[in-house]
Recover the amino acids of this structure.
C-alpha cells in the first residue's frame, strides 16, 4: 500500500464543512483511496472510496486531485457525532487485504 | 442485514493462558480479516482468510493463528498470552477476496477487547 500522510488533529464548528486532507504521493495506478472513521472504542466505519474521479455519497464527498497525489474528505455539515479518528488509506491491486492504517486525523466537532 | 458479529466483546486472561475469539461475517461475505489495535501501535493487520485459506499474514509471532470455516465464520487464537497482547481485536468482512478486486469495502465488527493480567 502507498503511504498516506494526514494531519494529527483538526477542529470544526458544528454545522460547518469539515475538510480533511490526505497526502498519498506514492499511490499506484490501481490503488483506491479509502476513508474510514473510528468513533471511540468502536470498529472502523467505512465512509467513501474513489480511484480518480470525485465521489459523493450520503455521508461525505471525496475530492481527488488530478495527479492523484492527494485527496480531501468533505463532511458537508459536521455534527458532534462526527467527532472521530479519520483514516485515509491507499489500497488495492496486490495489497491482498492488508489495510495499512496510519495514525489518522482526530476530528473534533465543537458546538 | 446483520453486521459483523464478534464474540466475546470483553475478556480478561492471565499471562500464559490462551484465548479464542470468534467472528461471524455479514451473510454472503466470504473474506474475513483480523486486526489488532493498541494505543501504541494503532491498527495492525493480523491475517486474512478466504474460502478457508489464509491469503495473507501480518508481522505477528506464530502465537497468533486463525482459521476460517466453510460457513465463512472465523476464529483467531492467541497462545501463551503476554501482557502486550492486551488490545482490541477487530474482525472485518468483505464480499470479494481483496486481492482480486481493486475496490473492496471492509465492514468491521465492534471488536473483542482482551485484557491480559
Amino acid at each position: 500500500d502507498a503511504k498516506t500522510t494526514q494531519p494529527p488533529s483538526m477542529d470544526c464548528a458544528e454545522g460547518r464543512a469539515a475538510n480533511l486532507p490526505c497526502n498519498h504521493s506514492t499511490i499506484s495506478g490501481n490503488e483506491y483511496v479509502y476513508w474510514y472513521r473510528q468513533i471511540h472504542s468502536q470498529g472502523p466505519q467505512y465512509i467513501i472510496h474513489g480511484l480518480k474521479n470525485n465521489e459523493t455519497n450520503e455521508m461525505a464527498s471525496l475530492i481527488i486531485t488530478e495527479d492523484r497525489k492527494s485527496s480531501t474528505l468533505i463532511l458537508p455539515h459536521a455534527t458532534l457525532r462526527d467527532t472521530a479518528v479519520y483514516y485515509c488509506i491507499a489500497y488495492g491491486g496486490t495489497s491482498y487485504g492488508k489495510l495499512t492504517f496510519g495514525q489518522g486525523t482526530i476530528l473534533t466537532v465543537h458546538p | 442485514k446483520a453486521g459483523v458479529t464478534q464474540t466475546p466483546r470483553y475478556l480478561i486472561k492471565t499471562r500464559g493462558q490462551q484465548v479464542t475469539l470468534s467472528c461471524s461475517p455479514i451473510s454472503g461475505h466470504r473474506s474475513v480479516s483480523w486486526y489488532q489495535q493498541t494505543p501504541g501501535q494503532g491498527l495492525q493487520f493480523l491475517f486474512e482468510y478466504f474460502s478457508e485459506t489464509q491469503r495473507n499474514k501480518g508481522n505477528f509471532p506464530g502465537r497468533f493463528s486463525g482459521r476460517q470455516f466453510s460457513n465463512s465464520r472465523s476464529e483467531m487464537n492467541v497462545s501463551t498470552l503476554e501482557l502486550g497482547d492486551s488490545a482490541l481485536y477487530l474482525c472485518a468482512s468483505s464480499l470479494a477476496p481483496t486481492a482480486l478486486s481493486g475496490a473492496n469495502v471492509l465492514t468491521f465488527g465492534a471488536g473483542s477487547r482482551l485484557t491480559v493480567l
